[in-house]
Amino acid sequence: MRPLHYYVDTSVWNFLLEEDRPEAQAITKRFFQQVATLGQMAISDIVLQEIERAMPTRREALFKLLARYTPEQFRLTDEAKELANRYVQAELIPSRYLPDALHLAIAVVQNCDVVVSWNFEHMVKLKTRLGVNGLK
User: Fold this and answer.
1) d(Cα 92, Cα 48) in Å, to the nearest integer?
2) How far is residue 37's CA from residue 128's CA, in Å, rounded to a whole number?
3) CATH top-level class for 4-134?
């Protein structure tokens, strides 16, 4: 049996640094402690682009986390772009949140088993989860 692939979006990396949200930070730290025994973490170009837009101190801390945990890095492909556009057209993800649709599409195209996110607005809604699985 192959190890599980966990696509970890930017929100999760950020929560490792969220000292003003100790409960969420603690849960996130537990995930990072356990994921090595459960499988392989992955990120994408979209995660890297979002980190690049962070304030300098935060950006540096996030890149240190990536260096520490060494997730697999997936490229944004034409197939993932097309799939993300389908998610938006199907109104699973609002068009103004196209990067979130790209996160999901990259994870699907790369056959990730799990998408890990602290984005509760739309990425992990039941409607989104069912719709994304239906549009593969």
Assistant:
1) 24
2) 28
3) alpha beta
Q: What is the CA radius of gyration of the chain?
A: 15
Instruction: Report domain extents, the chain.
Output: 4-134
Kindly report the number of other CB atoms within 10 A of residue 76's CB atom.
Answer: 17
Whether the model pTM is above 0.70: yes
Q: What angle do CA 105, 106, 112 make, to 5 degrees?
A: 100
pLDDT digits (tens, 9 = 90+) for 87-128: 999 888 899 999 999 999 999 999 999 999 987 666 555 555
Residue 102's SS3 state is helix
Distance CA 36, CA 88 (A): 33
